[in-house]
Amino acid sequence: MKINVLFASCILALSSFSAAAQQQRQSLQIIDTIAVPILAETPSFYNHNYIFKARLDSIQKMVPLSYNEHVQKYIDIYSGRKDMMGKMIGLSEYYFPVFEKALKYYNIPEEIKYLPIIESSMNAHAVSRVGATGLWQFMFATAKDYGLNMDNFVDERKDPTQASYAAAAYFRDAYQELGDWLLAIAAYNCGMGNVKRAIIKADSHDFWEIRPYLPLETRNYVPAFIAAIYVMKCSNQHQIKAQASPFIKNTDTIHVSRFVSLQQLSTALSIEEDELYSLNPAYKKKIVNGTELEPKRIIIPKVSMTQFAEIYEVLNNTELNINQNVFLASNDDRRKAKKKIVVKPATAVSYHKVTPGQTLSAIADKYHVEVQDLKVWNGLKSSSIVPGQKLKIHNPEAGKRKQVAIKG
User: Fold this and answer.
1) For residue 139, is pLDDT > 70?
2) What are the pLDDT digits (tens) for 259-300?
3) How many Å apart are CA 108 and CA 172, to the nearest integer?
4) What gap in Å lies between CA 260 and CA 296, rounded to an integer?
5) CA-to-CA distance for 12 and 196, rounded, in angstroms?
6) What is the DSSP letter of 51?
7) Residues of the chain with CATH 3.10.350.10
C-alpha cells in the first residue's frame, strides 16, 4: 500500500512513512555484512551463563533465541562495545518504527528489525566490500528483483522505507520456502541455495545442526543476530547508555512531482543541508527527481506557517539548471564476474584521458554517469585522479540496448 501526497496549489500535505509491497521472487543473493566479526570455532564451552539464557528466554517471541557458546561469544563482543551499542539504541528510536511498519505489513516477526545492526550498524550509506548497500545491505541484483530502483539520481537501497519493505518481502518468501526463521535469517546472509544444500548434507532443518555445513560468515551471522537482540534488550544489565538520536524526531512526509534541490530546501527550512540529507539518504546528487508519473518522497522536519512561503517557492517555482535525463544504474557488484557472464561489446566502453584541473565529479557529469560507477569501473579507492590518467567509461545507453537484446 502506498500513500501519495502531492503539493497542490498552496496546500502543504503531510503523510506518514509508507511504501509499496514488493513482488515475490524465488532466490536471494544477499551475501555480505560489514559489522559481524568472524570468530574461530571453540571446541569447548567454559563460560555457560544461565542468567544470559534466562534473559534470552524471557525476551523470546517468534524467532528462537537459542543460547550456546556461539551466541555467548557475540554477547561478549557486543556487550563490550558500549559506545557502539549506545549509538544503536539512539538510532533505533528513529529507524525501528520504520522497520516495524514494513515487517508488520508482511506479518514478519518484529525481531527482524534488529538485523540492520549487524548488517550495516544502521548506516543508510553503508557499502560493503562487494557492493551491498544501505541499512539492509542489498546487492544490486536482489534489490532490482524486489522492486528497488537505482539510477543516476536515486539508490533506493539507501531509502529506509523502501528498503525495509523489500527486506520484509524477502523474509516472507524465505520463510515460505524454508519454514524456519533462523534458516530464513541465514539465507539472507548466504543465499537460499547455500542453506538448502546445508539442509541436505545435515539431513536436518535445525539451524544449529546444519550450521557446520554453511559458509563461515553465516555460521557467525545468526549467533551475532541473537546476541545483538540480547544486548539491545538487556543494555541496562551491561551498563550501556543510550546515546541521543542524531535524527530529527518530529518529521513530515511530502511527495513532489518535480525536481527539487535538497540544498535549496534546507535553506528554506533553516536547517543544515546534511541534516536534511540524512533524512533523505537515497538521493545521490541531493536532488529529488520527482515527476508527474513518479512523484518522489521527501522527509522534512515539521514546519511552521512562517516557513511556508519559502518552502512553497522551492517546491513549486524553482527551476534547476541540471541535466534531468535519468539513466538506470549498472550492476555495482564488486565481486569478480563469472566467466559465463556475457561481456559487454567493445562499443559500450570508451576511455577518457584526465586533463589538468579535472575532477572525477566533472568527468562523471560529462558522460552522464555516477562517480561511484567510475570508481568501480576503474578500481579506484578514492576520488583522487591525476592528469594523463586514463579512465574506463561504460556507455549507459549501450548497456541498456544490450540488456533489452538479452531479455528479448
Assistant:
1) yes
2) 999 999 999 999 999 999 999 999 999 999 999 989 999 999
3) 7
4) 10
5) 51
6) H
7) 346-407
For 346-407, CATH number? 3.10.350.10
- Is this prediction's pTM over 0.85? no
Residues near 294 by Cβ (< 8 Å), separated by ≥ 6?
A: none
1-323: CATH topology:
Lysozyme (1.10.530)
CA atoms of 100 and 3, how far apart (whole Å): 17
d(C-alpha 158, C-alpha 123), whole Å: 9
Look at residue 345 in the predicted model and tell me its pLDDT. 45
Q: Which three cell numbers stand for residue 243?
A: 546515546
Start-end of CATH 1.10.530.10 domains in the chain:
1-323
Q: Are 368 and 394 in contact (CB under 8 A)?
A: no
Residue type for position 116: P
Cα-atom radius of gyration of the chain, to the nearest Å? Answer: 23
Query: Residue 181 to residues 82, 138, 174: CA-CA distances in angstroms?
Result: 28, 19, 8
The dihedral built from the CA positions of residue 29, 34, 37 and 39, taken in this order, carries a sign that is positive
